[in-house]
TrEMBL record:
GO terms for cellular component: chloroplast inner membrane. It comes from the Eukaryota. Keywords: Membrane, Plastid, Plastid inner membrane, Transmembrane, Transmembrane helix. InterPro entries: CitT-rel, SLC13A/DASS. PANTHER family: DICARBOXYLATE TRANSPORTER 2.1, CHLOROPLASTIC. The lineage of its organism: Eukaryota, Viridiplantae, Streptophyta, Embryophyta, Tracheophyta. The gene is LOC111490721. This is Dicarboxylate transporter 1, chloroplastic-like.
Length: 568
């Protein structure tokens, strides 16, 4: 192979370099230009070919060059010529890289399912339930090891359930009609408009101008802003996806932290994980902060005939909740730190950016108005009988009609469609595990085991709490978990001597906190994980660590507070 390099402001000379045989020659630019086709365009990135002038040696004449122009800002600057010798040499074609599944993770996933499939079915469990558990766990292993993208792994799991007749097609794909996956997908479309219009940057710069001198201060400003909105917006998916994901992404981009280019840990990784983990805390602090919280209150009344009111819930949660909101961001700041921790000049630079942006554009005004409309419907949706996903669809419709966001841009949001696929698949499989009776069998087995240990009510309740909490790895919905296990665990805890109201309110709080374990355990999880700032293994690892800290805070400091207010 030979290479020719041509450089200069307007290329006064051409340097020809060749290996085997080695050729060095100088060619005047005017000579080269005369040999170029008239259609050659300098500085435009056009690739063309040219004749080697007759003044070159015979060695050089045997070269068949291709001219590759590279320009910057309309100036020619430099271009290179790559040439191949006409001598007959055999070059092996480059092999195409394997683009299919990663083999070892795929084998691990399939092996998990096969082994469990052939384990004898326990007494009291139907064959269908056991087979679905095998497929579900194989899918979870695949989601963790990622032989393929998450949506593809989930689709394979659904395919296996249909192929084995474990689920019908309509059952396997039933969760695609569930509002939560669609609300999460719509959140990504909102984020697109938020960033595209520049509104996200404008708000991000406002935050940076106020709190940006400290990364930790910036994080706390977001954490407590979300907590203040929590009691007014009863959908954690809506809060996370419709309001805070676009804002957090804009802040990350404004601070030079982007997904996929190696700058994730500059700010984005810590901020995404922090905002997610604190969203489950704020959801646990108010009866109206998460859609499934009223279900816990209803099941409490049905089981022990005692009512958990809004004030009762908030009063019990306020102390451990505030402690967690302070401790968790700081903990993550220490064990998963951003690389940029202090930016004394950031507020000044942010104000300069705001000045350059000037007044809001028409698209920014439309985006802001649409956001206010959507949030207003989330806040007053109960009165107006408009649910969260309907409000989000209405908001997206406004953006589409006004051209703020186009349908092509929605289709290009690959993460949104991927998240919709895998989250809906997990909801369907987890839901049918409950319908097939596996969860009730598990609950009954646990309560019989704990009840037979003969421990004090405090220790028995502690065991029940841990089993209830960490069984959430098998659920893709807080509501499904509460519906399947809350009543059974509360009944056994009460029978073993736990104060019934105390047991109910603790299980209610934990029904939110357990959502931080995985990237599918609560509505805000797929939203923040889908931003692709935190690898899956780290998401799960830090999720488990934070869960331990939250349990210690809520049962430790919370227990002291609950004793002080007379809950036990």
């Amino acid at each position: 192979m030979a290479s020719l390099a041509l450089t200069s402001s307007f290329l006064p000379s051409l340097q020809l370099r060749r290996r085997k045989p080695e050729v060095n020659a100088q060619i005047r630019f005017s000579s080269l230009r005369s040999s170029l086709p008239k259609t050659a365009i300098f500085g435009s990135g056009v690739r063309t070919s040219f004749r080697i002038p007759s003044s070159l040696s015979s060695e050089a004449k045997s070269i068949k060059p291709a001219l590759d122009f590279r320009s910057s800002r309309g100036n020619l600057g430099a271009f290179t010529v790559r040439a191949a010798s006409s001598s007959p040499s055999t070059v092996a074609p480059a092999s195409q890289p394997w683009q299919g599944a990663a083999i070892k993770p795929l084998i691990a996933s399939i092996a998990t399912g096969i082994v469990l499939w052939f384990v004898p079915v326990p007494s009291g469990v139907s064959r269908n339930a056991w087979q679905l558990l095998a497929i579900f766990l194989a899918t979870i292993v695949g989601i963790i090891t990622q032989p393929l993208p998450l949506g593809a792994v989930a689709l394979l799991g659904l395919g296996a359930s249909v192929l084995t007749k474990t689920l019908t097609f309509s059952a396997a794909f039933s969760a695609f009609g569930d509002p939560i996956p669609w609300l999460i997908a719509l959140a990504f479309f909102f984020a697109r408009g938020f960033i595209k219009t520049g509104l996200g940057n404008r708000i991000a710069y406002q935050f940076v101008s106020l709190f940006g001198s400290s990364t930790l201060g910036l994080g706390y400003s977001l954490v407590f802003s979300e907590a203040l909105l929590a009691p007014a917006i009863p959908s954690v998916s809506a809060r996370a996806g419709g309001i805070f994901l676009p804002l957090v992404k804009s802040l990350c981009v404004a601070c030079g932290s982007n997904a996929g280019d190696g700058t994730e840990k500059r700010l984005g990784s810590w901020l995404m994980l922090t905002c997610f983990q604190t969203s489950v805390i704020s959801s646990s602090m108010f009866l109206t902060a998460m859609a499934a919280n009223p279900l816990s209150a209803t099941l409490t009344y049905n089981t022990i005939k005692q009512t958990i009111g809004w004030t009762d819930w908030a009063k019990a949660a306020i102390v451990p909740g505030l402690i967690s909101l302070i401790v968790v961001p700081l903990l993550l700041y220490v064990i998963y730190p951003p690389t940029v921790k202090s930016s004394p000049d950031a507020p000044k630079l942010a104000r300069e950016k705001l000045e350059k942006m000037g007044p809001m554009s028409n698209n920014e005004i439309i985006m802001a108005g649409t956001l206010l409309l959507t949030v207003g419907l989330w806040v007053f949706g109960g009165i107006l009988n408009v649910d969260a996903v309907t409000a989000a669809i209405l908001g997206l419709s406004v953006l589409l009609v006004t051209g703020v966001v186009t349908w092509k841009e929605c289709l290009a949001e690959a993460v949104a469609w991927d998240t919709l696929t895998w989250f809906a698949a997990l909801i369907a499989m987890a839901g049918y595990l409950n319908k097939y009776g596996l969860i009730s069998w598990f609950s009954q087995t646990v309560v019989k085991f704990v009840g037979g240990l003969g421990l004090s009510w405090q220790l028995s309740f502690g065991i029940l709490v841990l089993l209830y909490f960490y069984s959430h790895y098998f659920f893709a919905s807080g509501a499904a978990h509460i519906g399947a296990m809350f009543t059974a665990f509360l009944s056994v805890a009460s029978a073993l001597g736990t104060p019934p109201y105390f047991g109910a309110i603790v299980l209610s709080f934990l029904s939110n906190l357990m959502g931080g374990l995985t990237h599918y355990g609560i509505g805000s999880a797929p939203v923040f994980y889908g931003a692709n700032y935190v690898p899956l293994a780290q998401w799960w690892g830090y999720g488990f660590l934070v869960s331990v800290v939250n349990i210690i805070i809520w049962l430790g400091a919370g227990g002291i507070w609950w004793k002080a207010i007379g809950l036990w």
